[in-house]
Design brief:
This protein is α+β, with helices and mostly antiparallel strands. It is built from 3 helices and 4 strands; from the N terminus they run H-E-E-H-H-E-E. It has a single domain, classed as Heat Shock Protein 90.
Length: 103
């Protein structure tokens, strides 16, 4: 149940940031799940803070409702499942989040 919540949150975030291509991919490989979108990306100066409670990016504040708790809560749930949730990469062409279980 907790993993469902993490993935749903990542998919919702990806959907909210979609660019012109409008593609979201979920890739499952061994002990990892990647959620990849073709969205607007997360500005580099905001990336260190995305897992902080109540942090909302400047662009997101203006366009999307929310409290800034989705990613911190998802990271906490992932840890409870023995995994880690990280931002693998983000640019103006999209973002990739990774859920990884340690071997």
């Amino acid at each position: 149940m907790a993993l469902d919540m993490v993935i749903i949150n990542l998919l919702n975030n990806a959907y909210q940031s979609l660019g012109d291509k409008k593609v979201i991919s979920v890739v499952l490989i061994e002990n990892t799940i990647e959620v990849i979108d073709t969205g607007t990306g997360i500005p580099e100066n905001e990336q260190p803070y995305i897992f902080e409670r109540f942090f909302r990016g400047e662009e997101k504040k203006l366009n999307t409702r929310g409290l800034g708790l989705g990613l911190p809560f998802s990271k906490m749930l992932a840890k409870a499942l023995g995994a880690d949730l990280v931002l693998k990469e983000s640019s103006s062409e999209g973002s990739t989040f990774l859920i990884e279980w340690k071997k």
